From TrEMBL:
<protein>
    <recommendedName>
        <fullName>Peptidase M48 domain-containing protein</fullName>
    </recommendedName>
</protein>
<keyword id="KW-0472">Membrane</keyword>
<keyword id="KW-0378">Hydrolase</keyword>
<feature type="domain" description="Peptidase M48">
    <location>
        <begin position="81"/>
        <end position="166"/>
    </location>
</feature>
<dbReference type="Pfam" id="PF01435">
    <property type="entry name" value="Peptidase_M48"/>
</dbReference>
<keyword id="KW-0482">Metalloprotease</keyword>
<feature type="transmembrane region" description="Helical">
    <location>
        <begin position="29"/>
        <end position="48"/>
    </location>
</feature>
<keyword id="KW-0479">Metal-binding</keyword>
<keyword id="KW-1133">Transmembrane helix</keyword>
<keyword id="KW-0812">Transmembrane</keyword>
<keyword id="KW-0862">Zinc</keyword>
<feature type="transmembrane region" description="Helical">
    <location>
        <begin position="240"/>
        <end position="263"/>
    </location>
</feature>
<comment type="similarity">
    <text>Belongs to the peptidase M48 family.</text>
</comment>
<dbReference type="InterPro" id="IPR052173">
    <property type="entry name" value="Beta-lactam_resp_regulator"/>
</dbReference>
<keyword id="KW-0645">Protease</keyword>
<dbReference type="InterPro" id="IPR001915">
    <property type="entry name" value="Peptidase_M48"/>
</dbReference>
Amino acid sequence: MVYVACCLTLALAWQVGHRGTSVLLAGTAWAGTVLLALSVAGGARSAVGLWKGLRATRAVSQEVLARGDSTTVSAARVSDAAARASLAGRVTVVDSKAPFAFTYGLLRPRVAVSSGLTTTVTERELHAVLAHEAAHVRGRDPLRALIAGLLTAHHFALPLLGHLRAAFAADRELTADRRAVAHCGTPAVAGALLKVSAVPGWALAVPASAMAAPDLLDARIAQLEDGHPPRLAPPARWRVASSVAGAAVYAWALAGSAALVAATPLSCMPVGA
């Protein structure tokens, strides 16, 4: 997108410099201007999202380390369950009375489990929680969530991507539940699901995947009852209509920009092409 923005900027500058500002009234110039504006705005939004995501991930990693709980009972119990879930060395027990567990970290995800969780759930339910989080770790879901957020922010003219992003997050949670059921059984997953609370406030800003997702509770319970994932709600009509309009604008802007660049004797292609 940086390359496209540079090409369009040079083309528009050349057209204005050689033909005057009246050229901006032409359709191709309008198309180039619109595409340039969309590219710059989308790039800025995704850059801010990336910066916030990286900053939040670092802050949560430091918070988890600061809140680390090395008490014998909690550490020993979680260590055993982590080994069974193939998460040995990747689970940190944090000092908190609230029962929660979540996966964080982009390149090498880790799992944070509260000490309150270890005293709230049964042994089988603890295994179910970590089996669920193990699915997020293997799928590098925090990283995928960040990328999905960046794409949604960049292509803000296509609000349907917001729905697809939510559908993707829901699918990852339901998939993690199914894998936990396969390892620990439905009763253990159901029991853990009803006991685990949402991600704590200090971790809300980080791209993470958690055992507790309040907005998906009904869908997850329905999956446990029926044995297969439920059909998620379709996108709102305004999202579909706005995205169709946005796609039309993108198509017009791309076609007009291509014509603008082709009519400008400034090569954006490599020499000799």
